[in-house]
Amino acid sequence: MAIGLRPTLNSDFTITINFNKNEFMQKDMDFLLCHFGQEFSTVGKKRKFNEPDLDTAVLYTKIKVDQISSKLNSKIAREYQMSSPTSKCEFSFSFERDLVCIGGRYCKFSRSLPQSPWATEIGEVPEPGKSVSEKICKVLEEYFKADSSRFTTSGREDIDVRMLGTGRPFAVQLLNCRRLKPLSSLSQVKTLFDLQKKINEDIDIQIRDLCRVTSKEAQILNVGQEEKKKVYSAVCYTQVPITEEMIKHLKEKYPLEIVQKTVVRVLKRRPLLDRNRTIYFMSAMKLDEFHFLLKLETQAGTYVKEFVTGDFGRTRPSLADLMEIELGKVDILQLDVEHVDLDWPPKSIHAV
C-alpha cells in the first residue's frame, strides 16, 4: 500500500476509502427498475387513488439496492450494456481509531457543580468547564489527542448533592485518539496514575480506580439501572419539635414500598407516570429539637428529596406520613450520596 502498512484484522486503526462515480447512476437505476420493478414498487404503504408516483430516487436506498443485487443472476447480468467512463472517479479517505474507554469512580464535593454541562436559564449557553464530565474529559482528551469524548455514568446526582464514599462509577469514551503509545502494557499503569493525579488537583472532584476498559464492559453502567441500590444521608428539618416516638416510627417502617408520581421539578422533560420504589433501610438520629440526620438505602431511581418533602402529596407514603407530621412540615436541607452499589471497575482489571 502507498502508506507502507500491512493490512490486518487485529488492528484498531481503520482506513475508509469512499469512491464517488455518478456518471452511470441513472443508467443503473433504470436497469434495476426494468428487471425488478415489483420489488421497488413496495414503499411501505399503499398509494391513494390518483396519488402521483414517487420519485424513483426515493426508492433506491442502499438497503433496497443490496437486496435486489443479491437476486441478480447471470442471465440478467448479461443484458447490462457496459460503457466506458468519460470522467475520472473521485475518491476520499479518512483515518480513524477504535474507541478508547477509560473507567473509574468519581467523588464530587461541591454543591454547585453539575455532573454535565448545565445552564441556569432556558436558552442560556452553559459556562464551559463547569461540570464533572468536562473536568475529567478535558484532561483525557488533551492527553490522548482525541477528537471528542462521551461521559457515561451509573446514574446522576443533582447539582446541589455531593457524591461521597467510594464515588460514582463512570466511563469516558475517547474518539479517534492520536496518542496511544502511553497505554501500552509497560506504561499504562503509570500513565493512568499520572492522569488521575492531574485530575485530582481540582478541589471540587476526586477520581479513583482509573483504568482502561472495553466498550462492552462500559455498557455495564447502563444495565439493570433499577436493580441497583444507593445509600444516602440527609440533614432534615421539621417545623414541629422532634420526639423520640417520631424517630422510632422510622426505624420500624423498612423495607418500605413507595409510589412516586413523576416529580414536579422534572415534569417538563419526563412523562407523567407512577413509579414504585423500595426503601431497603432507614434510620434517623436527632440533632436538636428541629433537625435530624436521615440515613437511607434505596432502589436506584428513588427521588429522595421528594420522599422527604412529599412533593405536594405526589409521593406516598412520604417521610412526613411515616413521622405522622402534617404534609409540608418536613424539608431537606442537605443531601449526600454515600455509596453506589456496583462492581466497578471490573475486578479482572487492574485499577490505579
Please, could you describe this protein's structure?
The protein is of the alpha+beta class. Helix content is 23%, strand content 30%. The chain is built from eleven helices and twelve strands. Strands 3, 4, 5, 6, 7, 8, 9, 10, 11 and 12 form a ten-stranded mixed sheet that branches.
Q: What is the fold named in CATH at topology level of the largest domain? A: Alpha-Beta Plaits
The profile of the biggest β sheet is: 10 strands, mixed
- By CATH reckoning, the class of the largest domain would read Alpha Beta
Structural class: alpha+beta
Secondary-structure blueprint of this entry?
Layout: E1 13-20, H1 25-35, H2 37-40, H3 56-59, H4 62-69, H5 74-78, E2 90-97, E3 100-108, H6 132-144, E4 148-153, E5 162-175, H7 188-199, E6 205-213, H8 215-218, E7 229-238, H9 244-251, E8 256-261, E9 274-286, E10 291-299, H10 304-309, E11 315-316, H11 319-323, E12 330-340
Please name the defining characteristics of this protein.
352 residues; alpha+beta; PsdUridine_synth_cat_dom_sf; tRNA pseudouridine(55) synthase; Alpha-Beta Plaits; tRNA processing
